[in-house]
Queue: 2 jobs
Job 1
Amino acid sequence: MNDGIAGKLAKQFINSKITPLLMVASLLVGIMATFMTPREEEPQIVVPMVDLYIPYPGATPAEVESRVAKPVERTLTEIPGVDYVYSTSMPDFAVVTVRYKVGEDAEKSMVKLWSTLMKNMDKMPSGVQFPLMKKVSIDDVPVLNLTFWSKTKDPFELRKTAVEVADELKKIKNIGDVDIKGGLKRQVKIVLNKEKLRQFNVSPLQITRQVQMANSQMTAGDFKQMNQEIIVRSGRFLENAGDVGNIVVGIYGASPVYLRDVASVVDGPEEVSNYNFFGWAAAAPHGSASGEYPAVTLTVAKRQGSDASKLADKVLARVADLKKSSIPAGVTVSETRNYGATATDKVSTLLEHLLMAVVAVTVVVGFFLGWRGALVVLASVPITFALTLLIYYLLDYSLNRVTLFALIFVTGIVVDDSIIIAENIHRHFAMKRQPKLQAAITAINEVGNPTILATFTVIAAVLPMVFVSGLMGPYMSPMPIGASLAMIFSLLVALIATPWLSFRLLKTEEGHQEEYDITKTGYYKLFNKILSPFIESSFKRWVAFGVVGLMLVGAIALVPLKAVQMKMLPFDNKNEFQVIIDMPEGTALEQTARVTKEISAYLKTVPEVSSYQYYVGTNAPINFNGLVRHYYLRQAKNMGDIQVNLVPKDERKAQSHDIAKKVRAGVQQIAMRYNANAKIVEIPPGPPVLSTLVAEIYGPTQEQQIALAKQVKKVFEETPGVVDVDWMVEADQKVYNLVINKERAAFRGVTAEQIAQTLRMSLAGMDVGVLHTDKELEPVMIQVRLPQSDRTSLQDLSGIFVQSQGMGTLTTRLRAGEMIPLSELVKIEEKIQDKSIYRKDLRRVVYVTADVAGATESPVYAMLDMDKKIEKLKVPGGYSVSPLYTASPTSEDQLSMKWDGEWQITFEVFRDLGTAFAVVLVIIYLLIIGWFQSFKTPLIMMIAIPLSLVGIIPGHMLHGAFFTATSMIGMIALAGIMVRNSVLLIDFIQIRRAEGADLKQAVIESAAVRTRPIVLTSGAVVIGSIVMLFDPIFQGLAISLIWGGILSTILTLVVVPIVYYIVEKKSAKP
Amino acid sequence: MSMDIKKRFVLLLAAIPLLVAGCSSQEQGPKIGRSQEPPVAVESITVLAHQTDGGEVLLVPATAIFRKGELSGIYVVGADNRLSVRWISTGRSINNNLVVLGGLDKGEIVVGTYSPALQEGVTVIKRVTAEDQTNE
């Protein structure tokens, strides 16, 4: 017999001493790689996203838009690789967000952005300040949060402690950004006394100038004397509040006026700017303190590519150490987020699942081939995985839930090659036609080449998924890459290690000398019974085809009937969620704190909640979601975040998504009472988006856009299943516009700048310098401001004075230094604050956002539902707005709407996966043509592919699951597996026919002989997938593989031989 | 300083003079609704708006306010007769009262005199004895 590649390889290695060494070496490198590969929960996604903050003080949103945002956007879209450009024009500044295509190099993108921006800075109007560029990346998400809280200490003391701890932690290797949320900083407050200022004839501006000038020190140079250099320095920095108080700020009569004469200088906590509290909730560990306590949260991010769990452990160990020194008694440090622990947890659960899958598959194999056969297969799995893990390590992948799932996913598939080889060797050993070594090689030759082909069909099936574009791409790419690598390794293992192991482990039973006769086996009898009627009677055949066809149509019909719903990814079971509270713009900090506190008090009673922290006036430590949604900018006074921590997964029955659904009503009831908008934000299972449902409204004017948005918002609110409805239009906020009376100001010798600065200093306060102390870790600012009690109403402004610049201005005859009351120079206009202007890809847009929960969990159905209602909306002009799905509107002359949010990603993913599937089919077809040299045969083999749908869709209905992106992956992979089964089946028919067997005999024989390996390999896939059923995200994949696998295998074994028979009968007979 | 206090009710939430619950037995697990604890008597007042030269402002007695570092808090009696801490920001003082700038609504009932023994979640009983205090 002519040896194929497989046979040659097997001959080389079956008795070689090198084979066991190779096996051991592979195992060792794999184990090493497992420990060295960093672990994290989420896959590393590089989405270069850059935020540009461009200040343009004094400008209205419309001005900011037209002078800054628009031109900047235009230049930025010229940069190759830029995917989207968003901008928000607010009063005084613009935020422009540039999102590059997924996978673009972050550093290169920054450089490109920088150079483009710099090239155009000269075109910016004067008054535009230098832009701030901030790169946003996944590594900005803190992996560890430590909340410092205390019954006795106040926020100021807590922050001080946290800062000291942060300083220590920063010394740990691989630590990223360490940040502190909340608490009050130390500050030297210069609290102006209006009466004294007037009495001593000192203006606020004069004070700033004097303080700034007093706070300087420098090296003046040196003297040379007697071969010595003596350094000369002058000045002295302000070192304490006393120094500040002693600054001379003016002269009254003949005596100096000290700062302490006109203002009180207080060294202590800054004015309250945030309310952050921590509290244990219903499910807190026993003996925890009730009530809520001032809290400061220290957040720790990791450096790119490092291991979150190792870092978290190191940090926690260091903190435990610091409890003896830096952290005073009475301050409790609670771990309020530990992604290191959750990552380890996830990774070990997955490794456990992997082990279970391997064991389950081994048991199945053992059932058919005996324990020796099982051992052969079992040994091949770790070697395959070891090599795959090594490649993961070399390719800089981390061990995360996607890379590990790729392994679980292929567990059932990688054993197949070994199973087929081992099974055939086993069969040949049992036939005893040849001596042992010869039998083994014959067996390998028989199935070796089809196995190689079959492996490549599976690779051809999964590999095109690499081309999934958009945000989902990097999420999914480890699957096809990991699976393909594992397949190649499994093939090598099957051709090198399996024969070696089989040759030694599989036994030929001594004693029986009976000649092997296929017609006597049970399989043959079974298939003879099943297939013969269909082969003989064409009527029965057509009935059978009809039944299968009906099943297929029925299965597909479940989708439009909504028995099976499509969704991109279902929610994962996490240990946290957030509540995002937005009060109407213009709400006082304390009022926001009050609502947040009340909602927290409700959340506290939820039995699954273990603890919570709330953050008002400062953003909560961001998570994956916050990165895209810009939650790190949530620092306004009308915004509050509650971080809700649940008890660990294994201690509760409910999934986090169900808890979130449950609390939503209670939370929103409280929020409604205060006219607040509260949203329950869960960690997205896939790439984060602005919101699950986003309606982008375009139109000719902002008023029209807002009017339509209002109507769309109402449609959202009325649709069942649509929750957390919000829009990005600020509530009306009252503004006192102080219009400067120019003539009068000029006549008094006062400039507009003076007035603006004086006002700002009085109201917002102005930092005039830094206190130079050695001890303090955070800079201590010196701030000039009016006391809070003196800046509550317009009347308070009457007591503020500015100094006349005197005759130098040439517009006044007053002498310099004359005090002019501000109220004399300004006129008050009350108006409504201008709304921010949002733009996306150069178009003005108004966003309406919502989430889906309850009645529909999939945004697509909600969208279809709302489409009809939106089309009926009345807009000026009398046309109807029909929402767009995939493309942005072509013109802004008419009002239009586009769906975005999760839909955009869903659309991209299913489009790309669909394309991938089409490519898969073509490649498989080509591969089989290449092998069988026939155009017809591949088509017969590919019949198995649609048959898998008969199992997949009803399977989803049975489990009540969504047809998700992972289901789709399962379906595509299954195509490869099922075609492989057909390949093995038909290959054998052809071998038998070449040996001279009759067509019918060959067909039945092949079904009989191949049933065992086919059932074994499919069984391995099915059994290996069962562990995945319990993971919310990969459930779809498991269902596809299990139900599609079972149904498709059964149908393949019957339908494919029959179809082959029909087709071949015609060509064989004449 | 001239200002006219329009009206001011003093609700005496008195009744059974009981020990202030929770002052001796401090931390006993994260029980949220402490319904088992005896009700407490506190003197409370409703917050009313007062006319000053700058428009309407809310006033609370300075004795009602407690401080935690820079934070100013006040105990509020909720609709369910439970006490809760409210963080407020205060402005200038008028006689013995402080102007509340944020955190409190007109018509809310607050505990008139702060005592460290007060605790969140404690139920209070109120017997309303309204007292008219026009002008001082």
Note: The radius of gyration of chain B is 15 Å.
Job 2
Amino acid sequence: MALLRDSRNSRLTSPKKPFLALGLEGSANKLGAGVMKHNEDGSTTVLANVRHTYITPPGEGFLPRDTAQHHREWAIKVIKDAVSQAGISMHDLDCICYTKGPGMGAPLQSVALVARTLAIMFNKPLVAVNHCVGHIEMGREITGAQNPVVLYVSGGNTQVIAYSRQCYRIFGETLDIAVGNCLDRFARVINLSNAPSPGYNIEQEAKNGKRLVPLPYTTKGMDVSLSGILTSVEAYTADERFRPTGTPYSPEDDVITPADLCYSLQETVFAMLVEITERAMAHIGSTEVLIVGGVGCNERLQEMMGIMAQERGGRVFATDERFCIDNGIMIAHAGLLSYRTGYNTPLEKSTCTQRFRTDEVRVTWRL
Amino acid sequence: MEAYHYPQFNTVVYTAKFKDIKNAEALRSRIVKAASLDGADGEAERDAVNFAFIEAKLITSSLHLETAIYQALLSESQGSLRTKTIHSEIIWALNPTNNISEAIKLFGVSGRTTDLILVHAATSDTCDVQQKMHNIVDGRLVPMSTIPDSTNWANVKKHYKLNGELALMEIASDSDRERTVIDNIVISTVAMKSVMT
Amino acid sequence: MPSSSLSSPSPTQRLLGSAQLIYQGAEAKVYKVYLRDPELQQIAKHADHDTCSMAEDAAPVLLKYRFNKRYRHPSLDASLTRQRVAGEARALMRCLRSGVNVPGIRMVDAAGGVLGLEWVDGKSVRVLLPGGSEVMVAQDSDATDDVGPDRCEDAALAEFGVERDDLLSMIGVEIAKMHIADIIHGDLTTSNMMLRRGGKDLVLIDFGLAYHSSLVEDKAVDLYVLERAFASTHPDAEPLFNSVLASYAKRLGKHWSAIKKRLDDVRLRGRKRSMVG
């Protein structure tokens, strides 16, 4: 898969030789390994993008210890698959990139340990990457969006971001829980499967929803609050009109179904997200919006965002699950961008951190 | 007498202020009687008093009155009048509470009225409005801009519950400033009555 | 929403049709309009008054029209619009009664999504502070007044006869008065404040997201939102915002320490938020 690079917003000149990077990601329940190539003509090629997801039984979330265990068990296989799919040797790599944070501590550490080991074994420089910046850069690369307002929505993050002066500034964010977390936790309440992901199953369930129940709608400036809506939608499952899946009822009954709740939750939460994104776009005068992060593959969110962007005379950019959901290739890509500006991470500084804000990264590769 | 043109409502609203009213009590009882008269006499009598009669001492500015007129016209156009006519609706809109009889008692004409404002809303230009006003009111016609001159500010403060509000406490010493602030609050209260609670 | 009938537009829609669009925001369009024909028709001559000098022309009104959002579910959109028009009017009313400088209310059509406000003649604080006129110039109705990027903010301030420090302190005082009245603005930015021409009033505007709360938490978040807006709009915003906070603190008196403590918490928690939750 070859992508044309547009250099209008880049400080990087086309490389004299191709660059190759391995990217390792494991900040949550996905373990990913990807091999990225930056070509001499400025284009990029995704040579491999392998992922294995730790899936828990319905009703259960993933715990840090078990997730770390999963990553340790699968690391060798996932990396081997990626390298062999890419058709390269470990010796061909220019650098090894890994997720420094943000994310869950134990899973981050287990993947960082793998990265350090490989760096020593093959004598390669390490590049520590901010997970959120990985999402943004991969989204820009895949969609060709030049200078969009970015809505970053995942299990752990909900942020409205825009680039300014070597920094991805956070214009708005959640004041409590992340949107993916909100959807996942509700999926557990109504016992939806965690495969392939709880959010995907909420989206499918919502398609059968017919009734919009009132839920709190809380936007504060460019921020949102989502914990109240979770409490409120959960409360409907104790309402006497609620009929769990499989319970018979006649069409004229006044009932609330799990599908209705998924539908109402999505309509309300996504409306809030589109609203704060639009406010940020108006604030900085941008018409492009890029959605990244796991919740970004939700087609209803993409549709709503598209309507908003179109009314502003702009458009929405989004990627499919290969790049939206956590993956190794985005870490390889963002890592290579900073590696090419002369950045690498000495072994003794190759730590992880659960807290790592998007706006702490100095974006040296953009104008 | 003034005429306000509202193209969006296809309406012209005539207003006039009278002072030194000498027939307030007679006027009040004539309005009450007109409502219950039968037949052609009733029609003629209701036409003669087809105005909003407003106690001018509780009005702080022509904008205060205009705001009540606007909200009443809006309610009428949306089919949501709380009272029977556009004229009673204007009086209702002026009163800070939803109680209709209280509105008429406070903001309508009473036996003690000395300063009176008449309002007539019409869908077409009517040339004889001023004559009709003079036919029923025994008083002296003055411009609407003299409204603040006859305002009973203490009563306005009382009825709009402004006593003790922080906005007035800070500027109590400056009566010009106080009147400007009162006028603004009173206008705003009338404008937002439909969404007050 | 406005006028479902096919026959003719509602009076509010007709009013909007005659209005001058001055700003299109994310959520609302803002117009300048006259609620009636601005020229008053003086029909009668008054014996003891000079009619010409007594005629009062209508003052312009600012109309804020919350147009519908097609991305939002229609019933959610309609109820949000009604709630927000009503909520904004109530917050403004509370401010007015508490002596906070805000525009007066002139007209409300909640179902039609329209709020009519007193027309404030002045300038946005955003363009009066450093860096504020760089972005969004295209959307600023006063854009043509700005001479150039070079120190145009100070020139604009001089035109109002106000020093920058005075302006910052006025901002702090108005926000303090608002918080004392238990109103949370919800969208404090330098674009949502105006310096009134002539007088020395700092007017807080755009109460679209305002709500009533006495919680220290909500007041702290309100300040935090402003702090972030300062940081994202004005370079080297820290001393500017500190001046605002200093006058806020002074006005708030003994209630300041609790809010300060919570503001520090909110700033910290902002950092925690990037964790996987």
Note: Residues 74-97 of chain C form the longest helix (24 residues).
